[in-house]
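User: I'm putting together a teaching handout on how multi-component assemblies are represented. Below are the sequence lines for each component of a complex, exactly as they appear in our records. Could you produce the 3D structure of the whole assembly as structure tokens, so the students can see both representations side by side? Please keep the chain order the same as the input.
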Amino acid sequence: MNRRQLLAAIGLAAVAPLALAQSFSGKTVTIIVGYKPGGGYDATARMLARHLPKHIPGRPAVIVQNMPGANSVIAANHLYNVAKPDGLTIGTFNRNLPIAQLTGVEGVKYDITKFAWIGSAANESTILAIRADLPYKTFEELRKAKEQVVIGSTGPGANTHDFPLLLKDLLGVNLKIVSGYSSSADIMLAVERKEVDGRAGSYTSLLPFIERKLVRPIVRARTTEPGIDQLPVDESFAPNPKAKAIMALRSAPEQVARPYVLPPKTPPEIVKVMREAFAKAISDPEMVAEGKKAKNELEYTPGDQAQKILVEVMNQPKDIVQEFAKYIKFGE
Amino acid sequence: MLEALWEGLLLVLQWKAFGFMLLGIGLGFWVGLLPGLGGATTLALMLPFIYTMQPVEAFAFLLGMHAVVATTGDITSVLFGLPGEATSAATVVDGYAMTKKGEAGRALGAALASSLVGAIVGAVALAAAIPVVRPLVLTFGSPELFMLAIVGLAFIASLSGEGTRGMVRGFIAAGLGLLLATVGQDPQAGVARFTFDTLYLWQGLDLVPVLVGIFAIPEIIDLFVRGNSIAGNAPPGKVAKGAWEGVKDTYRHFWLTIRCSLIGTFIGIMPGLGGSVAQWMAYGHAAQSAKTPEERKQFGQGDVRGVLGPGAANNSKEGGSLIPTVAFGVPGSTSMAILLGGFLLLGLIPGPDMLTKHVAVTYSMVWTIVIANVITVAVCFLFLDRLAGITEVKGHRLIPVILVLVYIGSYTSNSHYGDLLVTLFFGGMGYLMVRAGWARAPFVLGLVLGKIAENYLYISTARYDAAWLTRPVVLVLIAIALAVIAYPFFQARRRG
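Assistant: Of course. Below is the structure of the complete assembly, with chains in the same order as your input.
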């Protein structure tokens, strides 16, 4: 690097924030959500849209656009192939998109590790809860159950289905999975009328029913949060390393449960600005309070860390992926 | 209970809550009129505004909006043959036929008056059901819900045309509807069915683009071919009046309206059946009320009872679907799922507490539904006759406007060009069906009920094997389904 280039570089570094501020001011940043309005992904995006502007230099307007279809694959493809890498389009979509890529789902036209990752706005800790009036108080007791325990699910690809499926197939727990319920709330009603004995799902969504003593948490996946630290983890019962790897792989995307990305090849300075804005917005007391109130609690996973987790997911040995694909299908 | 009811009314009548309700009504009014933009989406968009509101104000706002969507949705259905909402598609069948006969005013009057009756019945049911709601909802497990879907499908018999030929066509159309309901990723094995490797079809066919296509497109073509106005073939001077006649119709067929309201409420209470089922079952029931074959033929040609039934049911189901939402935290429809998010925002936990500790808030919701509908219907009546005048506008001025509404409406469901293709495809299919004299209602019924029937049949069998067939409520429902199927034949024989 000669002196001139050095000067130019210094000059650029000094001017860049200002230039960025100018480039964002008066602009509109669009968050593309891979679902219809009304769900959890949409709610988080709308909350962010309200709190992000004050943390981005130039205070651009932030709006939400829904691009539903194919469990978010359409939105991800759009962001990967069509959206301009100018920082004005952000995407948020199904956390299981890495699974779709890994298992070779048709129609996937993205490489999840090549997005410019802003980070994740929340974790998801999956647990299995069964009716409190059943005789099984612990996971150990459930494992020894002679009678089949019926678990309701919404369908393959959802954590209501995949988590208990691995418990059944890899750990030999005596479960019967009945799928086809239209929502996790629907399964809850089936639990109330004793049509099924329990359901898996995110701890947050089950909490009201745990507090009401309708169900009791029994076992959790790797990702945790305060309140369920003491629950046994499915992986720790794995009979062999392969089973353990499969369970870990299923759970990995849950650490990146509300993914936020920019299109690939977004200039690093824009990525940096967005990452900082996200980190600040998510720790913004106003937004934290709002999230608490809406039972939509936030936890920021920085972009580089999210990317690292996903690179690890994508680099699994072939035999593990093949075995994994036998159990897990991409969905929801 | 009376005290809580009174307290609930006072809560709604506070000036702030009332003001928010008026605001909600104003919004809901337009959302209902515009096709595509549905009540559920709008609720999701409005949710952020309630952060700073008190619970009663927030529900007055959200429910006020939601309660009128189905009411004004009927207006678009009647005037243009274009379903204003997925939940007001059944009103098109006879409502638009009346419009073409120059009876738009009467049809609108009937739709609105029956909507009001429906809303009140639904709200009363909500208020009355509060003490018994838990056992009521818990009696209906997956086997019972499956059988309810079957009862719904049994109405094909009365929705089809007359005679063996009409019946066969009806069942073929319904079968096609059932088949198309399987498009998309199935929830048991996760297999993609009939998606032709497109991502768009992965989550199945959306109801709005299909309904808008199958009902509106044939009418637009017809209007274009005729070259005059929607009511162009009607005797002059008849169009811009008759709204009161429609109100009188509601009282002429008062018990039918009440029965259809009860059907709507009941379907609303059952979580998992979805909002678009009730109207078709009510329509089927209304068609059954025809006493002679000549009368029966009038259905689909503009019988006012075909407007009253769905008009009442699509409003009464709102009160019904609030019941499981409030009592269990289990939403009865998409809109209610979003409303549930509102509960949490306001720090209210749906469940037993809403029926005891916060019962006044619950009753304030009942009142909101009633008051919002009374206001809407009253306001609508002020310009109803003038509204009917639109049907005398020349087609070549009207068609571009309707077409824009059709395509915007269908595009709002996924913001994907696939929505437009689906609308065109089903538009073409609808046109062929109309030309060949096939009833469209059985097809839509099959499409609406297909997924429900499939999933609950699977769950019932997976959970109980064949034992579910002997559950008492299932047996009762089997009997009802058989009665519904046999009724038209029985009627025909009695006449013969």
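A couple of points students might notice: The longest helix of chain A spans residues 3-24. Chain A touches chain B through 51 residues (CB under 8 Å).
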